[in-house]
Amino acid sequence: MNLLTKINDNMSGFSKGQKLIANFITEHYDKAAFMTASKLGTTVGVSESTVVRFATELGYDGYPKMQKAMQEMIRDKLTSVQRIEVTKSRLSGSDVLSSVLNQDIEKIRRTLEETSKDDFANAVKAIAKAKTIYIFAVRSSAALASFLGYYYSLIFDRVKVVSNYGETEIYENLFRISEDDVIIGISFPRYSNAAVKAMTFAKRRGAKVIAITDSMTSPLCSLSDYILIAKSDMASVVDSLVAPLSMINALIVATVIELDGQVEQTFGRLESIWEEYDVYRSKSEEEGN
Fewer CB within a 10 Å sphere, N or C end of the chain? Predict the structure, then answer.
């Protein structure tokens, strides 16, 4: 149940202090989402313990769980300017390098906890069997599609990366998709309308649909056969793509294992080409310098 719905349903039973908290969250949840329990209490004029009890009364296992619920509500609604303001308020005066890296570590940990191992395994099998693999992502997520497309293009004959977000271009790039194919859609807050349209089109054509996204509330999830959750909820002007990239790394490795020996032959031929055309520096050249 949405946090605001919970507050509305319980409003009549709240104490005076709890009503102050409830009203502030209802009107300013975008600010409350990044306040500590102590800060929220000070802002509305109640004790920190009252804030913690308020969260518990709403059914949350402590204040951090309620805070996460508030952050879930706003993660796809903040504008770039609002993201900058939030980042400055959270990180100003702190060790930014340590803070950002530790947040990324936490996102990888949460990704490992929340992604379905069954969906991951089934997604790999569907990719390995697909006639054509379509990879769709736009804006900042396009970098992930490019990385995944690069490696899959070395492994498979038919891989198509689609990064257009004009409606006409989407359908032109996907019009051949069929039930023999797979589409991997990648989108994170703020969610792309183009990704939703592309995956809707692919699903109607019978293709297997795989989503790489940050939450089960993502609009991509209802369209997908397999959902790969990768946390990316940093409230910053920069989208954190560390956990999504780790997910993609795992997907590539698992695909190689699933193909069981076929990839070695492919990369053997590639190594011959790379050596013939002097693609990489040799050890002798490095020692000579």
Answer: C
145 & 225 share domain: yes
Range of the domain at 59: 3-74
Amino acid at 10: N
* Whether residues 134 and 241 fall in one domain: yes
Sign of CA dihedral 242, 248, 249, 254: positive
Mean pLDDT by 10 residues, the chain (289 residues): 80 91 86 88 93 93 89 68 64 73 86 93 97 94 95 94 84 94 93 92 96 90 95 69 95 92 76 81 63
Q: How far apart are CA 39 and CA 62, in angstroms?
A: 16
Nearest-angstrom CA–CA distance, 60 and 237: 29
Inside any domain, residue 282: no
- Which two tokens mark 40? 């929220």
Domain count, the chain: 2
If 0-12 CB within 10 Å is exposed, 13-18 middle and 19+ buried, where does residue 192 land?
Answer: buried
